[in-house]
Amino acid sequence: MSISAKMADVDEVEVVVAHSERATLRVGDVFLKVDGNQSRHDVEVEAMAMAPIPTPAMLWRKPPVLAIAAVPGSALGILGEPSTASSAAWSAAGAAVRKLHDAPLPPWPGRSLDAIAADLERECEWLVTSGVLPADLVTRNRTVAEAVFRPCPPVFVHGDLQITHVFVDGDVVTGVIDWSEAARGDALHDLATLTLGHEERLDEVLAGYGGGVDVDVIRAWWSLRSLLAVRWLVEHGFDPSSPGCEFDVLRARM
User: 123 with 192: CB under 8 angstroms?
Assistant: First the structure.
């Protein structure tokens, strides 16, 4: 049966995520990613082709739409909710991340530390002046986040390795999705993103990932990622104050 026939047989279209920048729809076993910025799709297609770990199959592309196949299994977890995945599944995720980080670098660069530092300066100022978060909470987390700004060799990073982007079936990683932020970058950023809001799972991830990890820098990335995310989440209709989400991550550093 052709892809178009499969889609024609489906009565329901599920909106997976939608905001002013992009939208993802699910039609049967096909995900349709709509993005006005085609450079993100360019990165996603090339990164999936290069990655040495399971990724979705690209079915077709007709800008501004990219169609990819669903991967088997279920997401490792959801931010703000306890993960029901096994310890072995979390360790398998760590092993998959290590395999990615050991792969040859992609040809395109990632964001510089100077650019990230400028973003941190701007967002911390907004958080304080807007009154969204107490000044002492912002200051404390900004201090913690400074540990990110140190020399480190770049690796092939996913760039947005949220737990909803890692799929497992039992104890096996079956696919990693959403590669539009892939680039050269800091390995510990991926590990921090994967465990954001699930700090209790870090040891399991590191058991699969292996040594050479500075946990203080992972904590720094938890703070930095949360500080940078708040305004975007608020402006796009998401709630960073939900239990287990960004506000709680920032409060944990106090």
Answer: no
Among 182, 185, 251, 250, CA closest to 222: 250
Dist CA 221 CA 193 (whole Å): 8
Where exactly are the structural domains of the chain?
A: 72-252
Half-sphere exposure of 15 (CA within 13 A, CB side): 5
* Residue whose pair of structure tokens reads 């006005």 in the numeric block: 36
Cβ 96 vs Cβ 214: under 8 Å: no
Nearest to 193 by CA among 232, 151, 172, 224: 224
CATH for the stretch 72-252 = 3.90.1200.10
CA distance 84 to 22: 29
Closest CA to 149 of 180, 188, 114: 114
Overall pTM > 0.70: yes
Cis amide prior to 64 (ω within 30 degrees): yes
3-state helix, strand, coil in the chain (%, to 5): 45, 20, 35
List the chain pLDDT tens, one digit each, 254 residues: 444 444 455 568 999 888 888 899 999 999 999 999 999 999 999 999 999 999 999 999 999 999 999 999 999 999 999 999 999 999 999 999 999 999 999 999 999 999 999 999 999 999 999 999 999 999 999 999 999 999 999 999 999 999 999 999 999 999 999 999 999 999 999 999 999 999 999 999 999 999 889 999 999 999 999 999 999 999 998 999 999 999 999 999 98
Bridge partner list, 12: none
